[in-house]
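Office hours follow-up: a student asked to see two folded examples consecutively, so here they are.
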Amino acid sequence: MTTPTTRPTPPTATPTPTATTPTARLVRALRRPRTIWSLLAVLATLVVGALGVGVWYACVLFQLFNGTLSVPCAEATRFAAAQPLPASARTAECHRGQWLGVQYTAEFHIPREDFEAWLRASYPTARPPFACEPTADLCVDVSMPADTTPPDAKGRVVRHLADGTVIEAWTVPDGTLRVELRAYTV
């Protein structure tokens, strides 16, 4: 009788990381100096970019709080409930500031006739300009009507106009007026 021969079963092999497994490739890649420097360069770029954005944001906030944030003059006149500046207005600079309230300023040069026409078109019910020595040649103080904007769905009242506007004008040697408009909320 023949006895069956049994073959020995091979031992189960434990998997060892080979050159083709993702873990082995990552370990090999991280051991290369070029890869490490590349990762550090990317990290440094991200950090410097974040710092740059932070500095830019801080500068914008600083300009906003001290009233030197440049804005289009159409935005400033709209806030002051005035007509857009006429075409004869030159060297116009407009700024916005915000601390406890919102303030817009506009400074421009304009011929006297155009200034008076712009003023009548912008504020028909305002008193005519009056002399306000010693600060300026002409002054206009406009109190805005109460803002009757209804509350939104959350019960907040969003203001759309300034509470008051002060306009001062000085005569310059060439005969035009240098005008300063300040519109503000209380």
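And the second, which I mentioned at the end of office hours:
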Amino acid sequence: MLAQDFEVRRSDLSNMPFSASDLHELAGAPPEEQALAFASTVMRNPTITAVLERLSPLDLPPWYLTAGSLFQTVWNAAAGREDLNHGIRDHDLFFYDPADLSYEAEDLVIKKCLNACEDLGVEVEPRNQARVHLWYGGKYGKDIPQYSSLAHAISSFAATCCCVAVNLNEDGVLSIHTTHGFEDLFNGVLRPSPVTIAPRQVYEDKAARWMEVWPALRKLPWPQDSDAG
């Protein structure tokens, strides 16, 4: 696992769009350069920028915007689309508060985030990752241990390209987290994550939808000796 963290100032971001060939070349660049290109790309999406700016001043537990809206923005950039929101359904907001695992405490944070983003007209999905183990088994038929941190939760996604996250603070600094680096994301590769908690069917279903929307993606098979889900 190549989990890494980076900090990038908004003032250092590039305004230049990155094409598929640019991203493919960057897949072999130093990690810091990759992180800058990733941050520059996702911050070109005005919806992501707006969501981050609304969340930044809130008094929230540790949090990240993660998953779909980020890696799908990169896929849209690679496809040369002007609409960087193409195919994006929602914006996953992970926060981590182990002090109170009640639904009521989680709901207070959810409402605070949704109220801040209400006029944007997009779906934001905040969830306390410290309590996911309380409901995951009932939803997916597989019990999991409690996540130990936000990084642990981000690592749980089915594909390596999904495991990216961004936070913006009030000083204009972007904190970027990745479990597996950016190579698969920049190369348009769907690879089962070796540390995912998701069953195989989750990967298969998501990959099928993604490849309908972004047909240039290349899917790798689920490992033969892994849970058939």
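Two things to take away from it. The longest helix spans residues 103-117. The CA atoms of residues 73 and 85 lie 6 Å apart.
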